[in-house]
Every structure is written in C-alpha cells, then in structure tokens.
Design goal:
By secondary structure, the chain is mainly α. It is 90% helix and 0% strand. The protein contains two helices and no strands.
Length: 49
C-alpha cells in the first residue's frame, strides 16, 4: 500500500518534469527567462527589508 502510493507520487512528479522539459525544448530561451524571473522574484520577496 505505502509502496504503491510512493510510486504514484514519483510517477506524477516524473510526468510534471517531462512536461517542463518538453516546454523548454520547444522554446528554450523564453522558458529559461520565465524560470529565471520566477527565481528572482521568489528570492527578492524572501529578502527582509
């Protein structure tokens, strides 16, 4: 039971990763820019003023 649940979670994660990788392959520059912006924003919002 536990193993099955873990496998399901891993499978879902893998599917998500595959989708992201496909997006990056289709449009690498735009995707990288978007990810970089997301990172920058999340880092920026975590910094205490």
């Amino acid at each position: 039971q536990m193993v099955q649940e873990r496998n399901d979670i891993l499978w879902k994660l893998n599917q998500t990763l595959m989708r992201e990788v496909r997006k990056i392959r289709l449009n690498p520059i735009e995707e990288i820019k978007r990810v970089a912006m997301d990172r920058a924003i999340s880092i920026y919002t975590q910094v205490p003023m």
